[in-house]
Every structure is written in structure tokens, then in C-alpha cells.
Known about the structure:
It contains 14 helices and seven strands.
Amino acid sequence: MRNILLRFFACAVAVAVGASVVQAAGTAGSRYGSDYFPNVDVLDQDGRKLKFYDDVIRDKIVLVSFIYTSCRDICPLVTARLAQVQERLGSAVGRDVFFVSISIDPENDTPQRLKEHAEAFHAGPGWLFITGRPDDIKLINYKLGERSRSLTEHRNEIVLGNDRTGDWARDSAFTDMSVLAMTIQGMDPEKRREAARQVIVDQAKVVPDTDVLPGQALYARTCAACHTLGKGARVGPDLLGVTGRRDRAWLANYMIAPERMRAAHDPIAVELMGKYKNVRMPTLGLSENDASDLVAYLEFQTYRITAPKSEATRAHERGHQHGGHSHNHSH
Ligand code: HEC
């Protein structure tokens, strides 16, 4: 995990010292409007031609991310997190707020590839994946503050904006899910007060985590965006029972370095690749300790979900669910 966190902090610091160009402007008719954003032609994942400012930004609240479909480390995780935010916001996406993922590799990201990427993450309506002429896309990304010189250098912040008020700000897709959903809704001044009230209610409901298992927090933050335990394939396979199908060493190696295993033509890795065509399990920078915690956590969850249960166990679990631990073992 350290890699990701470091990169995340690196960019948080960069923003803090003023490297960001997109800042909250605060006033209506601000300079971050039609004069600022290029109104060039772009293409969405369905191959539709759009004017970038008029059709994508104008009068909208947008959540912008920067991706490329051949990315094998951190950006699929960003998209997966945003897919969770989309789920959380429900019908507001496409009505009150629009998601925009802009390719930073327009030479290779055709609408077709973006479409496959969107489908792999179950992106719903209200979420555009944008590509276009490389120079135009570069300019758009530059204006939005994405200025990496190479793909691998590419940072993973997201940009939130409200064109009507001229408020633009950076955030991270790794912010706690509820906080992020709230921040997005808070881009709408009318909803801000409402949201502030809600926080107080939510805080009152928070139950402290007293018995978090090793691996559990890591799983929730990093893996649950793409995998379920017992609820079917999501972006990647259902991990319930995976500890029975594969051996522990293979699992740990795969979690640490899926890219390397594919490159080495590991037969299982190759088979999985054929089955999950449009998105690859990213290399997430896990340590060996992280991997063994995760394997143990998966084993434990598999056991807990599949083992025959006594009534006492069920009652105990019901108690736990009320305590906020219901992520993976309820239906
Ligand atoms: C961005 C989405 C994504 C994230 C995040 C992710 N995975 Fe995956 N995972 C996949 C996909 C897709 C596959 C299917 C194989 C492939 O990528 O070629 C997969 C495959 C796997 C497999 C092999 C399953 C099998 O049937 O053998 C394991 C184990 C696994 N992931 C564990 C994890 C763990 C643990 C985490 C968190 C540390 C994680 N994954 C995070 C997308 C993801």
C-alpha cells in the first residue's frame, strides 16, 4: 500500500503548496468558465462528438478524473472507487452531478476502448469517458491541472467543479466514500446546508470498530471496489472460496504482482485474463505482510460465509451487523 499512499500524499502536498491551477474561484461568472475551458470537439465512449465546454462542462457539477485504459496500477482503482461513488449517489448521477473521465492517452484510447473500460466498471449514464485529438485533450487536461509529462508519472487526484458558481477544487478518489459523496453533493450550494445537517446525524450513528481483523481495512479500501465476497463477479471475480481454488503462495504472489505473473505466462493468470477481458487486476504495491493478511482475511470470510452455522453463530453475526460489520456476509 505504501506506494499508493505516498503518491497520494505527494499530490496532496503539491496541492497544498499551490501547485494547483484550478482553485476555488467562488464567484459566479468566474474566470473558470467559457473563457477558460477550450470548447474543442471531443468524443465520448459511444463515439458521439461533443463540444468540451458546451456539452460537458457548461452549467454542470462535474467530477473529473484522468485515466488511460492500459494503466495497470492506480487508475483502475480510481475508476473502481468512482464506480462505488456512483452507486452511492444513485440517480443523482446524470441529474445533479456528472462524472467525466478524460483519457490522458488519446493516441491509444479510442471510443471503443473507453467503452470497454466503462463497461468493465459498470459505469452508468451520466458518466462520460472522453477522448479526442491529442493536442486538444492535452490542452483540456492542462487546464484542469493534469500536467504529467509521461503516463506513469500521472497523478491520481480528481477535480470537482461547479461551472455555475465557478467553484473548482481537487480531491482524492481515496477519500472516505461517504465524505467524498458528501463533498460532491456539497458542490451545490443549496445542498451544502442540508449535507452539513446530515453529518451530525451520521456522526451520532458511528460505532467504533473494536474488532477489525488484520487485512479487513485494506480489503475494504483497496479490493472491495472490484471484488465481492459471495455476491458474484463485480469488476473482477467473486473472491468467496478463492482460498479453496488456489493455493496460498499463488494467491499472495498474484496479489502482490499480477502484472508480473501475466508476463510470466502463469497459466491461471492467463486464464483469468481471458475471462476478464477489459480490465486487469492492478499492481497495488502490497507488501508480503499485506498479502498474507489478505489471504487470511479471505480464508476467514470464506469459512464464515460457507461453513454450516449454528444458531448461536447466526445470532452473534446479527449482533455484529448492527455494529456495522455487515459488509460481506449478509444478503
Ligand atoms: C481495479 C479492479 C481491481 C482491484 C482494485 C483489485 N482487483 Fe483483484 N482482480 C481484478 C480482475 C479484473 C481480476 C481478474 C484477472 C485479471 O485481471 O486478469 C482479479 C483477480 C483477482 C484474484 C484471482 C481470482 C481467482 O479466481 O483466482 C485475486 C485473488 C484477487 N484479484 C485479489 C485481489 C485483492 C486481494 C485485491 C485488493 C488488495 C484486489 N484483488 C484488488 C480486479 C481488481
